[in-house]
Amino acid sequence: MAKWRDTGMGAVLMGAWALATVPLTVIGILLAVPFLGPRRAFAKVGPMFARGMAWFCDTPFELRGWEQLPEVIRSGRQPVVFMSNHESQLDPPVLVAALPLPAVFIAKKELKYVPFIGWAGWAAGVIFIDRGNRERAMLSLQDAAQQIRGGKNVVIFPEGTRSPTGKMLPFKKGGFALAMDAGVPIIPTATVGGHHVLPSGGLHIRPGRFVVLVGEPVAPSDFPSRDALMVEVRSRVEALVAEANTL
After folding, report:
1. Phi-psi map region of 76: left, alpha, beta (phi>0 left; psi -120 to 50 alpha)
2. 10 Å Cβ neighbour count for 236?
3. Residue 70: φ, ψ to 5°
4. pLDDT, tens digit (0-9, with 9 covering 90-100), for 116-172
5. What mean pLDDT comes out for the span 85-107?
6. pTM exceeds cut of 0.85
7. Burial of residue 53, with CB atoms counted within 10 A of its CB: 0-12 exposed, 13-18 middle, 19 or more buried
8. Distance CA 106, CA 129 (A)
9. What pLDDT band is residue 190 in, cutting at 50, 70 and 90?
């Protein structure tokens, strides 16, 4: 590890790198849209942000457990809902780069209007939820379920926001209702490393490794209620987080 990254100047340089590469990556996506279409443009260019961060800031990431998933999922023929813990604002770009399949994120509506982030979200097909309006939120989730049944993979952070301590917050129920409505497997997922590299509310990027660990699929139809499904998935995510922390 280069020692300059552990200095105050190193922190400034890594922060500047991140701030510069976000708009550059988004501009690259937008420039590719006329040739590839929005979704393919995002899938091709979007992962470059996390890969560039891994190189310049020494934040490598690795995916584990993927080869143990059924082939029908790995090939993209069976859409799924990835449910992950949420330690850092770097979790989404790391997941975009680490997961071999394109996946749509579900995010709060406010992000839609953030320059560059909202534009990238449009290209990626992010499903924006209006949390302040229950009726609109339900309509958005119903639309999301239809898109999943049509073949889209979705990533959900069931905590709803980043954890300030690295420990998981209570899960919200909306994502589980979505998975049950869509009738597709849930893939419990652990994204570990973000609390060290860039914790919630932090601005100082530190060198460190991300581990993305995926577990066995959970079939919503095997559970009598949304609450029972949520308890099972949370238990599995907690186990994956504990395992990832030992790797």
Report:
1. left
2. 19
3. -60, 145
4. 889 999 999 888 887 777 777 778 778 888 888 888 899 999 998 888 888 999 999
5. 93
6. yes
7. buried
8. 7
9. very high
Amino acid at 20: A
Domain spans of the chain?
A: 58-244
Cβ-contact 177, 207 below 8 angstroms: no
pLDDT at 1 over 60: no
Q: Residue 104 pairs with which residues in a beta bridge?
A: 154
- Residue 33 phi/psi, 5-degree rounding, is -55, -45
Q: What type of residue is 179?
A: A
Q: Where are the alpha helices (DSSP H) in 102-225?
A: 117-124, 134-149, 174-182, 194-197
Q: Give the model's pLDDT for residue 227.
A: 94
The C-alpha atoms of residue 82 and residue 185 are separated, in whole angstroms, by 9
Supply φ then ψ for residue 189, to 5 degrees: -135, 140
CA distance 131 to 155: 17
Provide the CATH topology of domain 58-244: Glycerol-3-phosphate (1)-acyltransferase (3.40.1130)
Interaxial angle between packed helices 8-36 and 38-45, expressed in degrees from 0 to 180 and rounded to the nearest 10: 150
Q: Tell me what pLDDT residue 2 has.
A: 61
Residue owning tokens 């770097």: 90
